[in-house]
Amino acid sequence: MSSTNRGTQRNADDYYVTPHWLIEDFLAALSENCRFNFDEQAYPRILDPSAGGCEQYPMSYPTVLEKHGFTIVDSWDIREDSRALIRGCDFLETNPTPNYHDVIITNPPFNKAQEFTEHALKIAREGGLVIMLQRLNWLGSQKRKPMWQTLPLAAVYVHSKRPGFDPQKPSKTDSTEYAHFVFCKGYELAPELFVI
Q1: Cα dihedral sign, 51-57-60-62
Q2: Most C-beta atoms within 10 A of its C-beta, which of 17, 31, 85, 98?
Q3: Contact present, 86 and 62 (Cβ < 8 Å)
Q4: Taking the model in full, what pTM does it have?
């Protein structure tokens, strides 16, 4: 997902390469501030339902997570040319085994982010995490107000550095700020906010 300001055109299937440094920064902050003990022992089964990857670039979240020692990282993608283990898979149309995945983490299409989050929470195990990379302004809008009143948001990790989503132009950043939104199935406390 990328903001479409500054004359940017939206890519097919809303596919953008998530920079690995952005994921690394998030994982470091999550480990530092974490009440979730984010490691393979606590969360052994991870899914990225819009894993991406292509002929030129590896999948972002699976690549970084495997580098950090996670061994079961399932990858799905709607695109047939993705590097995901399962291609041509529309996450919103799936009905996987409930309570199997401990973490569902992805950079979903912005216009389907709420549906991705709700579907992920249905299939994640109790106490499992759903982590979505989104524009910070996802918190706003009257349309999404009911969502924020019901979903179990546990933490928001705001990235102080704007990312770019075009590896061929690494110095060109997006036109808006981003955050990793961490939901915890069954979580009932007030969410925490971290700036990284």
Answers
A1: positive
A2: 17
A3: no
A4: 0.90
Q: What is the C-alpha separation between 183 and 91, in angstroms, rounded?
A: 18
Separation of alpha carbons 58 and 146, rounded Å:
36
For the residues of the chain, what is the DSSP string, one character each?
-----TTPPPPGGG-----HHHHHHHHHHHHHS-SS--STTT--EEEETT----SSS--HHHHHHHHTT--EEEEEES-TTS-SSEES--GGG--PPTT--SEEEE---GGGHHHHHHHHHHHSPTT-EEEEEEEGGGG--TTTHHHHHHS-EEEEEE-SSPP---TTSTT---SS-EEEEEEETT--SPPEEEE-
pLDDT digits (tens, 9 = 90+) for 58-86: 999 999 999 999 999 999 999 999 999 99
d(CA 131, CA 172): 25
Q: What angle do CA 60, 66, 83 make, to 5 degrees?
A: 45
For helices 60-67 and 20-32, the axis angle rounded to 10 degrees is 50
Residue 1's nearest CA partner among 21, 15, 19 is 15
CA dist., res. 89 & res. 50, Å (int): 9
